[in-house]
Write the structure tokens for this entry.
Amino acid sequence: MQEKIVVLDIDGTLTNSKKQITDATKQSLWTIMRQGHKVILASGRPTPGMRRYEKELELSNYGGYLLSFNGGRIVDCRTGKVVYQRVLPAGTHVELYQFAKENGCGLITYQKNVILSAFEPDEYVQLEARINGLEVKVLENFVEAIDFDLNKCLLTAPPEKAEIFEQQLKEKYQDSLSVYRSEPFFIEVMPQNVDKAASLDHMLKNLGWNRKNTICCGDGFNDLSMIRYGNVGVAMGNAQSVVKEAADYVTGTNDEDGLVEVIEKFVMHKAG
């Protein structure tokens, strides 16, 4: 048996609209992990925001991994150790603060189990906090308070504005940072050449795992790189249209247990 490596985005992929892993999805994943297949969670979330699902799936028992911050950090679930990390260039947060202030964006970063906000949280920052189950702390002086390494910053704005700001930031930082939207209203700012595919590739090579055994599933803009990278790239039925176009296979939605269909078809090879 060739061990498959199933790489899953969390929001809109692993979880349903209620941010829950359904029993059917959970049972399917446990079945294949017991058979020796690997499950990796790959998300734009900070590491603490992924812990709930790591525990639910018992990834520490099955040798799973967390790719957090869109691949900016990789954690071995069995040992709890950070096995790979990339950080933003020093001073990046200063320029982003000026941009956010001039354009009325939200701006946050992360430290341990806390979201650090440059301004009073807008509805999108509040959503990020709820999604991850983290407290938001508004810093009186964001620029001076950030004196530690950052895996990423996140800017927030209404979708129609976020699309414009994303392009402006991409043009400004095309030679130094990775900039993309994970949701229509979330603009992720990462170290250059950091995305889910790049970190996955680094991990597979270090572990001696074969890319030909990868099945990568997602729904958002930030899943595009790994969907294109995977031997089988899967878009959820609820995925953005550009993600569906890039995928090898489109499954059911996250509210229809679309991952169960993927597991049965590409891991267990059930006819259907």
